[in-house]
Amino acid sequence: MAKTLKLFSWNVNGIRAVLRKNEIIPFIEREQPDAVCLQELKGSQEQAVKEGFKLPEGYHEHWYPADKPGYSGTAIFSKQKPLQVIEGFPEDIIKQYGVTGDTFGDPNKEGRVLAAEFDDFWLSTVYTPNAKDDLGRLELRHKHWDPAYLAYMKQLEASGKPVVFCGDLNVAHTEDDLANPKPNRGKKGFTDEERQGFQNFVDAGFTDTLRIFKQGNGHYTWWSHFAKARERNVGWRIDYFMVSDSIKDKVKAANIHARQLGSDHCPISVTVEI
After folding, report:
1. pLDDT mean over 110-136
2. Which of 97, 127, 220, 240 is catalytic?
3. Which CATH superfamily is 4-273 part of?
4. Is 59 a catalytic residue?
């Protein structure tokens, strides 16, 4: 029998920072998500607990911090216990797509990819490497990371279960996904290479869930701290929920929770019948 699940994703830009602002636990208590995926933890479970982190009863926690303290990291919290949780890319994907270190470090040690298998679907969260202001990490993104993550999602899908993946993909797909496309063309997050990387997900059979329900611009998930960008809604949509095309008709809602404060990103959610 199909279950209706409400799934959330949030780049918290520091789990300890959002805890100190008293935003994350009340948010989870209020929304009661079936699963919540976090990115950019910038800390470990132990550090978060010392800051008072305690989920409502009934959640299973899997934390995947970066090796480097105070940097990157992802987590999945779910009411249902996963059948398994996989940290990072499988070795065959790393080897096939050459996802190795660059001058900024080894992305495989940055806690960027988690995948959890449940009875009826796979859930993955990703914190895609930022291309950097000087585009110093664009080659990693374009030639290695984005193709590897797509191949990984297709590999999970080949198991016979649909895939839901989410997170901070660090790209605005189209001109409707950022407030000021013209001056940002060719800059990090809006290069042709990064946008093509996202389009490849769509072409390979994954649906951008928000676009099932909402068209046009104004739907943003990240805002600069400068010039009251958030208050004026001068932002970017770089956080996404994607689903296998086989279940796109079972997506009942997709939302951006822009009123939820605590980070420069806001949470996003999808409601899906699986």
Report:
1. 97
2. 127
3. Endonuclease/exonuclease/phosphatase (3.60.10.10)
4. no
